[in-house]
Each structure stands twice: as structure tokens, then as C-alpha cells.
């Protein structure tokens, strides 16, 4: 890496301004030219700058350190949580005594990915802000990881369109024949598929999931194969291929039983329940949802509890529906979740005999804007249709048309494959 880029990187890492670094050595404007590799400074000037940053003028490549960094990243991707933190602490110490700038940059990138894994979002945001100040000095492979990790960051913030833009940006580097492991390619394809699924792009989800699945099958990675089958099941269902959806879930269940993975089984039975619900087999759906709850922790059961509530609502069993609202709200007390707070509140209103203007305000000003902001097409459609019917029943046809237009727009976004 060019010396100017190295100086800029370490200055930003140490939270120094150009004025602080250049004071008593050179002008700020001259430092700016050095950092942008627009001029060649004397060895004496570079030595002064490096001394102030406490780095070596001559960069030394440290191959064992690079290997340790990529091993750590491998473990992050493969969810080997037991020793991730210890390795993070060990690598922090190694990096502090290293003069390998390339290794330092990879450490910062992988640290960002690690913070996302640990759900340390405030720290991740602060680190990303710093990374953005020097991302233009990245080599192509660094830019690949930057795009991939920022895509994941946006996904976790429910910013699915921008997440997809960054993940597709990373995908472009795969076509440049850069040296990536097959598991890395599969992880990117699966991440793209997952994001497309949130955007309801079912045909593309199936395509990218198969890209990932082919690699995972060749590596006998059973866990990731099962996750791919679940994603296929969800999106075959969206394409109304109910038989293929059921087949994918059954394949996933077979793997999950073989692995004795309770979390995976909970996810599979939940999705099988949703398949039954979509085909209006609500009693079967409830049985499958209850099976899912046997494998889920309380704080991970909100989606299944809401689905049981929905099934009982469709069966017009008001008493059971109200019981599951209470169950959901009890969990929300210790595990706040804005989306499910809205879901349960909506059905509290719907189970009342008379809907009030309070319900109207809640849906128009709070709920539907929330789901539009978070790009949740399913609920934009579902709740906008609800409001269109609500206004039709009250002969407010202009308002009804407004919500049908929202439904049409959401459907176009959802199925524009």
C-alpha cells in the first residue's frame, strides 16, 4: 500500500485531524497531497509523520497474522460463537504491535462484521463512520467485504433495498475471478437470496438460493442446506407451488432431526404451519404452530404466537384469539418488539364489536407508514386492504381507493421480478 494511503488510514484510526498530524512538520495542504498520493515527500518528512503516528515507515507483511484474521472471519461466518470473543481480544493485541497496514484494514472490516454478529449496533455504526472516511484506498478484495458487510448492516436495519444494492455490489467482484473460497461465494448468494425474500422477489430468491445450495451440498454443510430448503419452501409458496414448498420443508425437517437442532425445527414447523394457513387449513396450521412452540424459546416465539392468533381469528374463535393476544403481550413486556406490538394491537381492535376513529388513526398514521418505512410488503398489502374494506363499509370510497392504490403499488414492488 502506498505510504500516503497508510498515513491517512492510521491518522483516521487514531482520530487525529490533518492539523494535529501536520503541526510543526508541514502544512495541512501538503499533508493532504501526501495522503492522496499526489506528491512524493522526502524521507525525513515521512519519518516525522510516521513517528507521530507511532508506525513504521517501512511496512512489513505479516502472513501468520493475515491467516489468523481470515480464520477468525471464517468462524464468524460459520457461527462458531464459543471462542469468537477471545479471538477478537487476542487479535486486537496482535494488531496493535503490527506494522502491516493491509492486515490492519482487514481487522477493522472483520471487526465490523463481528460487531454485527454480536448485535453491537452502536459500536458498529461508529466504526462504519470511520471506515467510510478511507474506503477509497481499499483494494478490490477489501471493497468486496465492505459492500457485503454494509449490505448485512442495512439488512439488519430492515433497509432491504439498500441492503440488496450493496450485496449486488459485492457480487460484481465474484465475476472478476478474485480468489474467494467456495463457502464465501455461497454465503454471499444466500445473503442476496435472504434479502430478495424480504423484498418478495420470489423467482430471484429461488435462483440465488440454488446457487448457494449447490455449493453447500458439495461441502456437506447440512445446516446451511436446511436453511436453503426453508428459504426455498417460503418462496415456492409465494409462487403458489404448494407441493414443492411442502417438499422443501420436509427435506429441511429431515436434516434438522438428523442434527437434533431445536431452533431449526421450530423454524420449519412454523413455516409448515404458514403453508397450511395459506391453504386455509387453519386447524392443521394451529397444530403445526404449536409444534413449533415446543422447539422455540419464549423470546423467539412472537411470530408463531401471532400466527396462531391469526388462525383462530380466521376460524372466528374470538375466545382463543384473545388468549393468544394476552400471551403475545406478556412476552412483549420483557422482549419489546415494535412490529409485533402493532400486530397484536391491530387484532385487539379487530376483535372489538365496533371499530372506532382511534383504530382509523392508528392504522393510517402509525401502522401502515411503519411497514412502508421498513419495506414489509406483506403487511403493507394486508393492512392496506383491510383499510380499503373498512372505508368501503363506511361508504368513504375516495379513501378506499387511496388504500387500494397502496396495495397495487406494493404488489408491483413485490412481484416485479
Automatic annotation (TrEMBL):
Each TPR repeat, start to end: 266-299
Keywords in alphabetical order, please: DNA-binding, TPR repeat
The organism sits in which domain of life?
A: Bacteria
Q: Gene Ontology terms, cellular component aspect?
A: cytosol
Under InterPro entries, the record lists:
Cro/C1-type_HTH (IPR001387), Lambda_DNA-bd_dom_sf (IPR010982), TPR-like_helical_dom_sf (IPR011990), TPR_rpt (IPR019734), TransReg_Diox_bact_type (IPR050807)
Question: PANTHER family recorded for this chain?
Answer: HTH-TYPE TRANSCRIPTIONAL REGULATOR, METHYLPHOSPHONATE SYNTHASE
- Name-wise, this protein is Helix-turn-helix domain-containing protein
Amino acid at each position: 500500500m502506498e505510504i500516503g494511503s497508510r498515513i491517512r488510514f492510521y491518522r483516521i484510526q487514531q482520530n487525529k485531524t490533518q492539523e494535529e498530524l501536520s503541526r510543526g512538520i508541514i502544512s495541512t495542504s501538503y499533508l493532504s497531497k501526501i495522503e492522496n498520493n499526489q506528491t512524493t515527500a522526502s524521507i525525513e518528512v515521512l519519518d516525522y509523520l510516521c513517528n507521530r503516528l507511532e508506525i513504521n515507515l517501512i511496512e512489513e507483511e505479516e502472513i501468520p497474522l493475515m491467516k489468523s484474521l481470515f480464520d477468525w472471519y471464517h468462524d464468524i461466518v460459520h457461527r462458531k460463537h464459543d471462542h469468537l470473543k477471545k479471538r477478537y481480544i487476542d487479535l486486537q493485541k496482535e494488531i496493535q504491535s503490527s506494522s502491516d497496514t493491509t492486515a490492519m484494514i482487514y481487522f477493522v472490516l472483520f471487526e465490523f462484521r463481528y460487531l454485527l454478529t454480536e448485535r453491537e449496533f452502536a459500536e458498529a455504526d461508529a466504526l462504519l463512520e470511520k471506515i467510510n472516511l478511507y474506503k477509497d484506498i481499499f483494494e478490490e478484495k477489501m471493497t468486496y467485504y465492505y459492500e457485503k458487510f454494509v449490505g448485512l448492516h442495512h439488512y439488519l436495519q430492515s433497509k432491504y433495498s439498500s441492503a440488496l444494492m450493496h450485496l449486488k455490489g459485492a457480487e460484481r467482484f465474484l465475476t472478476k475471478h478474485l480468489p474467494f473460497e467456495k463457502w464465501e461465494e455461497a454465503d454471499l448468494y444466500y445473503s442476496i437470496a435472504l434479502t430478495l425474500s424480504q423484498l418478495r422477489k420470489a423467482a430471484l430468491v429461488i435462483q440465488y438460493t440454488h446457487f448457494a445450495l449447490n455449493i453447500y451440498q458439495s461441502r456437506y454443510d447440512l445446516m446451511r442446506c436446511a436453511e436453503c430448503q426453508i428459504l426455498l419452501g417460503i418462496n415456492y409458496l409465494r409462487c403458489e407451488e404448494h407441493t414443492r414448498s411442502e417438499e422443501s420443508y420436509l427435506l429441511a425437517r429431515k436434516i434438522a432431526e438428523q442434527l437434533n437442532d431445536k431452533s431449526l425445527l421450530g423454524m420449519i414447523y412454523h413455516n409448515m404451519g404458514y403453508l397450511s394457513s395459506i391453504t386455509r387449513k387453519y386447524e392443521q396450521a394451529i397444530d403445526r404452530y404449536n409444534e413449533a412452540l415446543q422447539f422455540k424459546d419464549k423470546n423467539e416465539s412472537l411470530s408463531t404466537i401471532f400466527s396462531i392468533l391469526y388462525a383462530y381469528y380466521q376460524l372466528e374463535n374470538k375466545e382463543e384469539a384473545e388468549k393468544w393476544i394476552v400471551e403475545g403481550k406478556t412476552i412483549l413486556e420483557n422482549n419489546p418488539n415494535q412490529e409485533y406490538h402493532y400486530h397484536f394491537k391491530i387484532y385487539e381492535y379487530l376483535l372489538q364489536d365496533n371499530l372506532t376513529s382511534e383504530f382509523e388513526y392508528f392504522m393510517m398514521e402509525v401502522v401502515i407508514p411503519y411497514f412502508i418505512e421498513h419495506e414489509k410488503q406483506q403487511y403493507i398489502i394486508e393492512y392496506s386492504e383491510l383499510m380499503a374494506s373498512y372505508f368501503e363499509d363506511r361508504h368513504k370510497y375516495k379513501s378506499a381507493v387511496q388504500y387500494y392504490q397502496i396495495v397495487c403499488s406494493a404488489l408491483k414492488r413485490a412481484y416485479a421480478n
